[in-house]
Write a structure and sequence with these properties.
mainly beta; Porin; 14-stranded antiparallel β-barrel; two-stranded antiparallel ribbon; globular
């Protein structure tokens, strides 16, 4: 399907209305991992991202959060995605490992994206996500002030939690704007005695970014990610990154009332990229830790007959 010369202002207005009307105005435990370099890992929360690079792309991210704080979250993600023969269809796969305290979650999700051509090199992508999480909780391993507390008397050994999600992403070589709800179902989690101990909550995301050429061989990329979840605080990530000579990224991120971060990414060549970020918290002065370290690696397979860049490497 092709929509020729659809006015960009109409699409932008529609997207903004959808983005802001989709989220409740009032919000109140984080169940999904949070990433600073989320653009390297966008497929895990945005199925419409699948196939965006035009080639087979592999990405890995490892995040050690609040180092030095006992039971702090540790998250690892691997994603792969690629277009079919036509760029209109993209497929992806996400594998997530997330551990915090006695809780261990592993996720496996498949992604499908379909792109509508709005104009040359500008697309509106619709995506769906389907898969499952496995949930483990070793409550009996905890050292409790009250060993007889019934809330921690039973473990959750293995629970499979199926889910589905969707996303929409408007993008070109130099901008993106989208929203997603990666998991629709609110699965109940029960312990070994079938007693309900937890219920999954809804998460929704809005995201956007633009690349400006500010000088010869210098580009500026401001981005925003709004993360809403039921019964927990919302987060807004404001970030700005500078690209020098199409090779080196420097950037900073501020997560409102939560943390700030510095990041660095290096394009070894057109295919291979490494990244690192360091976060410090601002929300709890007495929370003693050595910050958060996040490492990424990204590889694109350009040496195939079908390899062709449809989107610049900025996203």
């Amino acid at each position: 399907m092709k929509i020729a010369h659809l006015p960009r202002s109409i699409v932008l207005a529609a997207m903004v209305i959808v983005l802001f009307s989709a989220f409740p105005k009032s919000v109140k435990s984080q169940q999904d991992p949070i990433y600073t370099q989320y653009l390297t890992n966008l497929l895990s929360i945005q199925p419409a991202y699948a196939g965006i690079s035009g080639v087979l792309t592999l990405s890995a991210l490892s995040r050690a959060q609040w180092v030095g704080w006992e039971g702090a979250p540790n998250s690892n993600t691997f994603t792969m995605h690629f277009p079919m023969k036509s760029f209109n269809v993209g497929l992806g796969l996400s594998i997530v490992n997330d551990k915090w305290g006695p809780i261990l979650q592993n996720g496996l999700y498949a992604d499908y994206a379909y792109r509508i051509i709005l104009r040359p090199r500008e697309y509106l992508a619709l995506g769906i996500k389907a898969g499952f999480n496995t949930y483990h909780a070793r409550f009996t391993d905890l050292e409790l002030n009250d060993p007889l507390d019934p809330s921690f008397a039973q473990n959750v050994d293995f629970k499979m939690l199926p889910n589905v999600g969707f996303g929409v992403l408007w993008h070109s070589d130099i901008f993106f704007l989208g929203m997603s709800i990666p998991k629709f179902f609110k699965n109940n989690i029960v312990d070994d005695s079938d007693k309900k101990v937890y219920r999954e909550i809804l998460h929704a995301y809005a995201m956007g970014g633009y690349v400006f050429s500010v000088a010869d061989n210098v580009k500026l990329k401001p981005t925003l990610l709004y993360r809403w979840s039921e019964q927990t605080p919302s987060y807004i990530d404001l970030a700005a990154n500078i690209l020098l000579y199409e090779r080196v990224w420097f950037g900073a991120t501020y997560r409102l009332k939560n943390s700030y971060a510095l990041s660095f990414q290096f394009n070894v060549n057109a295919q291979l990229r490494f990244g690192y970020s360091f976060d410090l918290t601002t929300f709890h002065e007495n929370m003693i830790n050595s910050g958060t370290h996040e490492f990424t690696i990204n590889y694109e397979f350009h040496n195939t007959r079908r390899a062709k860049r449809y989107t610049a490497r900025y996203f």
